[in-house]
Design brief:
It is a single chain. It is built from seven helices and no strands. The radius of gyration is 25 Å and the shape is elongated. It is 84% helix and 0% strand. The longest helix is centred in the N-terminal third of the chain and has 47 residues. It binds zinc ion (ZN). Zinc ion binds next to helix 2, helix 3 and helix 4. Zinc ion (ZN) binds next to helix 2, helix 3 and helix 4.
Length: 232
Amino acid sequence: MKLIHIKSSPNKKSNRLRAAVMGSNDGILSVSGLVIGVASANGSKIIILTAGVAGIVAGAISMAAGEFMSVSAERDNEKALIAKEKLELEQNPKYELEELTHLYENRGLDTATASRVAKQLTKADALGAHSDMELNINPNNLTNPWYAVSASAISYTSGALIPLIAIMLPFGVMTIPVTFVAVLIALTITGYISAKISGSHAAKAILRVVLSGAAAMVITFMIGKLFKIVGV
Ligand SMILES: [Zn+2]
């Protein structure tokens, strides 16, 4: 299945993986804070579940909408570049042929071969060849916003399910500590993966994400307790 285009360079792939990790991180952080806050305010399981599910739906939609806007902009940009290339091909085909020949030379073909390849491809599909070589875009397979939308919604939801499932477990008074630990383990994993992707120091990245998760949960826990004491 080839939903996304723009040639999959390793960089692009790791960008997508990074986006998926960031999405699940977001899901873990925001929903853990939400359910722990409600639980510490003495919310019943059904209220915790309602808050958790609402948090997941709202968060996933907001992630997806943000992703949709940014990928749509990228797609519009690709279209504009292709349109410009098309115009250039119409207005100055001779220059464009030379340009394409040079691009193949730069890739390592000798002048004669490059010229032959450029001529043949120009005859077959000039716009396709130029978009590919100059812009690294396949005009028949532009970046698909729906891929990014579903990927971010899915990664957010999968992250968010960890604290929600943990807090729904029948552990009585231990439910909040269990959730706390489950979330910190999950964040350790996402922190480790994101460090591996970016090639940065794993311990530092893990510490950063785990500390921010712990802070978020402690703060929402205290807010919940406060509401309970005040009796809202
Ligand atoms: Zn061109």
